[in-house]
């Protein structure tokens, strides 16, 4: 039965245009083609990324946080108090979410989230995205399809793979596997579900584009995404360090790059290339529909995040907030912030006054 399922899964008509078979993509005459077995290495590489991340955060990013003056603020777990829990359950707007959890009452004591732990994570992502963007541009900048998108499909699918394309794919896919493996243990953000959808859709897209030899289009899409991600992570790093002016300026650049790349270039150039140009060469097949459907999922997420970014930019202009609208803070922290605002007035530097213990830095 397993062999039958495998034969259906790898049926050529699912993955390749009509009149082509896997035999057409076998290595020959020194030309190497993408194979599904190439991706097996990405799982152990993902765990290697998790190890490297731990070492980077411990020996590089955490000392950096100390140098930037980001102080560690650890939550103190209050002793169980039946009277307080009963009172909170009766008065809270979301009693089921945190019943028996003292974190809500801790907000009134001025015990905020651990921003000292958030900066190392953003430092790790910033480092990867920046290096990945530089590597991605090095992979594609000298290729004809970088300048003429019709070249993406020239000779498709019999397009050999270059070593630089192979490693770019393996590293990117391994990194997203590592993000998916660690997402449950990382700080839970407001867009936790959207992040899972994004990581899964990205992994499926990268894997499928490798199977079906959509590698030229895949390298363009990955480089396009990396072009703005490192800017967001750098803005968050400066936000955690209370370098507000630097954070705001970088965020403005990030917002502009994000909107241009994700809402203009991706749908009107790249997706046009993957939707329209292939039909000039061969009839549509399952892989064509599947790839573009997953691209549509990513585009919907981009629109969702663009809405949050624009809303955050508006708050920048009005001086209401300076932190990521998607929030790296735990979801249960939201109500404690709201209660503090009600009791203490407007936010100070994007945090309730009792939580804003760091001194403002002049940058």
From TrEMBL:
It is found in: Membrane. Residues 330-340 have a biased composition (Acidic residues). This is Ceramide synthase 2. It catalyses: sphinganine + octadecanoyl-CoA = N-(octadecanoyl)-sphinganine + CoA + H(+). GO terms for biological process: ceramide biosynthetic process. Residues 117-318 form the TLC domain. Residues 324-363 are annotated as: Disordered. Pathway: Sphingolipid metabolism; Lipid metabolism; sphingolipid metabolism. The keyword tRNA processing does not apply. Its main location: membrane. Keywords: Membrane, Transmembrane, Transmembrane helix. One of its GO terms (molecular function) is sphingosine N-acyltransferase activity. It is a multi-pass membrane protein. The chain crosses the membrane at residues 38-56, 126-146, 166-184, 196-215, 250-270, 290-310. GO terms for cellular component: membrane. Pfam families: TRAM_LAG1_CLN8. It comes from the Eukaryota. SMART domains: TLC.
